[in-house]
Amino acid sequence: MDFKNGFVNYEAFGAKGDGVTDDMHAICAAHAYANAHGLAVCTKPDATYYIGGQKQTCVIATDTDWNSSRFIIDDTNVEDYHAACFNVCSQLAPQELKIEKLTRDQAHIDVKLEHDCYILVENAHIKKFIRFGLNQDKGTSQHDCFVLRKDGAVDSPIDWDYDVITTVDARPIDETTLYVRGGILTTIANRMHEPVGYHYWRRNILITRSNTVVDGLTHMVTGETDIGCPYQGFISTHNCAFVLLRNCFATGHKIYQTIGSLGKPVSMGTYDYDAFNVVGFTMLNCRMNDITDQTRWGVIESSFCKNVLLEDCCLNRMDTHMGISGSYTLRRCTLGWQGLNVIGRGLLTIEDSTSYASQFISLRSDYGSTWEGDIVIRNCRWIPTGEDSYWPFLFLLWNNGMHDFGYLCSMPREVRIDGLFVDDSHAPADYDGMYFFTDPASHYGDEDVPTAEERPFPYGVCQQVKYRHLMTTSGFKAKLSPNADISANTVVSEEE
Predict the structure, then answer these.
(1) In whole angstroms, what is the distance from residue 307 CA to residue 286 CA?
(2) How far apart are CA 259 and CA 265, in angstroms?
(3) CA of 376: how far to CAs of 98, 413, 460, 466, in Å?
(4) Which end of the chain is more exposed for a tag (fewer CB within 10 A), N or C?
């Protein structure tokens, strides 16, 4: 075939682009041809491509420009809801690599490689992140992802010690960047009913290729009804490094209920962005509407990521379930009603940002409310919404020392605040000032609080809080915590 300007199009393979005819077979064929010949794909700007419910995944391995083309993904009747619609992947084959042992924060491995590699190691004999609460589980096998350079240098932190490694997955990192640009994609939502438990739907764009940029993609959701199942993430990034989402628009999903693992009703988390085992995950100017609409679930979920940056984003939540490490930075961001949820280790920095959540930072209690390292808050605004009367706590955390999460848990080592405005105008009548921390030993007013001697898994206390330029609407001075142990063991200093 002879394509003008070297761009492959869908119409050459039979696509109609009329929004009615199922074009998925033609879309897959076009990308297969482009992948085989090293050609880019460019679609018709005024076309609307319909994708039906058949089980078929289109492999994208070359630059793709969807410009202003529209796609309709119909999830009302599908063959396999686990199957992605698109997979952005590398054409480099996995590499055989043997690693017998690793230590936490190890900086070098004695190997020579042909390519820089994304590495995933696992010790299946040890469980971490043993979840607590209504969605409790038995944990996840201990594992780490990191980037290993050709000379053996490790340039992202290793979180655990490995006396035994049961699995090593080494994936070469492409030296060139793959771009997926534009596109207005609309999902007609599923209507699957699961009254007990739930399964995540994909029907999405799965990214498994390192060095990938998605720029200017818009995703809409329509057709939600009173029943439905959650989505894993429309842009779903798994097991790779250096992925950038830029100028993208996402949609919050309707919240559905089910029965969780303890036999009690729970909300089903459902996402438009998902990052899992990613090193170097960046979002720039990614946005959504209605960030304070409490009928929409938090738009993003992440787990096991390292070195994450968000700049100029407007989202209703940024969430980390099972840990983040290295550097974690939010800059010039606006977060909505579900705010910032996180656990992990390293340096967390929030600067020039605004939050409308009921707490400025939630250290997730279902994973131990742990942050190993420091947290810096600089030039931020906190405006809690959605409650008629609310006593503000800067950090929401809970760990009474009675549950084994598979690791030691602690509050951040040090909290540094340099510029924070708090709107506490909707506090209760007896209010006399915000707290930095909730009481980690008492969960929502539990009466049976274990003593220090009764706790087999003690929760480490913050060592120091430093703050300046902290202003509140009420004028009341901030206090440390209702918990006496924190007040007795944490140094607080207000600096000029």
Answers:
(1) 18
(2) 4
(3) 39, 11, 19, 10
(4) C
Between CA 189 and CA 197, with CA 192 as vertex, the angle to 5 degrees is 120
pLDDT for the residue numbered 447: 59
Burial class from Cβ neighbours inside 10 Å (0-12, 13-18, 19+) for residue 156 reads buried
Q: Which residues pair with 417 in a beta bridge?
A: 377, 467
pLDDT per position as a tens digit, 113-149: 999 999 999 999 999 999 998 888 899 999 999 999 9
Cβ neighbours for 125, distance < 8 A, ≥ 6 positions apart? 164, 166
Handedness of CA 473, 474, 476, 479 (dihedral sign): negative
The size of the chain, in residues, is 496
How far are the Cα atoms of 5, 160, 165, 268, 460 from residue 104, in angstroms, in the given order?
A: 50, 5, 13, 34, 20
How many angstroms separate the Cα of 214 from the Cα of each of 242, 366, 376?
12, 32, 29
Tokens of 69: 């083309």
Q: Which of 121, 131, 115, 67 is nearest to 321 (CA)?
A: 131
* Paired tokens of 373: 């390292």
Please check whether residue 47 is in contact with residue 69, taking contact to mean a CB–CB distance below 8 angstroms: yes
Q: Which residues of 389-415 are buried (b: 16+ CB within 10 A; e: fewer)?
A: ebbbbbbbbbbbbebebbbebbbbbbb
Token pair for residue 63? 């630059």
Angstrom distance (rounded) from CA 7 to CA 5 = 6
Greatest alpha-carbon span in the chain: 77
Count the Cβ atoms, other than its own, within 10 Å of residue 274.
Answer: 23
How many angstroms separate the CA atoms of 213 and 266, rounded?
35
Beta-strand relationship, 212-215 and 178-181: parallel
For the residues of 87-156, what is the DSSP string, one character each?
Answer: EE---SPPB------B-TT--B-S---SS-EEEEEEEEEEEE----STT----EEEEEEEEE-TTSBB-S
CA 119 – CA 96 distance, rounded (Å): 11
What whole-number distance in Å separates Cα of residue 186 and Cα of residue 333?
26
The one-letter code for the residue type at 293 is D
Digit-coded pLDDT (tens) for 398-427: 999 999 999 999 999 999 999 999 999 988
Query: Rounded to the nearest 5°, which phi and psi values hold at 287?
Result: -140, 165
Q: Give the burial class of 423: count Cβ atoms within 10 A of its Cβ; 0-12 exposed, 13-18 middle, 19 or more buried.
A: middle
Rg (alpha carbons) of the chain, rounded to whole number: 24
- CA distance linking residue 488 with residue 480, whole number of Å: 10
Neighbour-count burial for 122-146, b at 16+ CB within 10 Å, e otherwise:
bbeebbbbbbbbeeeeebbebbbbb
* Report field, pTM of the whole predicted structure over 0.85: yes
Strand partners, 330: 310, 350
**Rounded-to-10 torsion of CA 387, 392, 396, 399:** -110
